[in-house]
Amino acid sequence: MLTDEEKKYKMRFIEEKLKEKECRLTPQRRATLDVLIENQSKHLSTEDIYELVKNKFPDVGLATIYRTLQLFDDFNIIKKLDFNDGCYRYELSEDQRHQHHHLICIKCGNVYEFDDDLLDELEGKIYKSNDFTVLDHMVKFFGYCKNCKETK
Questions:
Q1: At the topology level of CATH, where does 101-151 sit?
Q2: So where does Zn(2+) get bound (predicted)?
Q3: 0.85 exceeded by the pTM?
């Protein structure tokens, strides 16, 4: 859970990014960002985000949310994730070089974050053998969470 200070920092950082792209932060876009920041670890779908933004802006349309998410994705403010569950989910892009990985329960659909970066050694080998510099990667592990494993 982010502190209020961390939330403010993230919002300022994103506002600057939008300003660089000469893009206005409309009230609907700000509400969408607020939802993403407040629910950072939840990997929300477009419909989830829409429902939460609608609480603040009852007149907001689903198309506005789709356009806003596409804009944020284009500007690398968010990452669009596919967990093979039939819908895209979103999370804020991080400022660091590598992202966390995801553990996805195939029974209940819960998504857990895994922060340990075990691929540094592999990236070194890739660079040496292929003269290829890895800038980022994403790993998804599919299996059963603790609760589903116990009820299997």
A1: Dna Ligase; domain 1 (3.30.1490)
A2: 105, 108, 145, 148
A3: no
Tell me where in the chain the CATH 1.10.10.10 domain(s) lie.
4-92
Which of 123, 119, 85, 83 is closest to 103 using CA atoms? Answer: 83
Annotated binding-site members for Zn(2+): 105, 108, 145, 148
Q: Please report, in range form, the residues annotated as the binding site.
A: 105, 108, 137, 145, 148
Per DSSP (E only), the strands in the chain are: 44-45, 78-82, 88-92, 101-105, 111-114, 140-143
Report the percentage of the chain scoring pLDDT > 70. Answer: 91
Side chain identity, residue 88:
Y
Q: Which of 127, 135, 49 is nearest to 91 (CA)?
A: 49
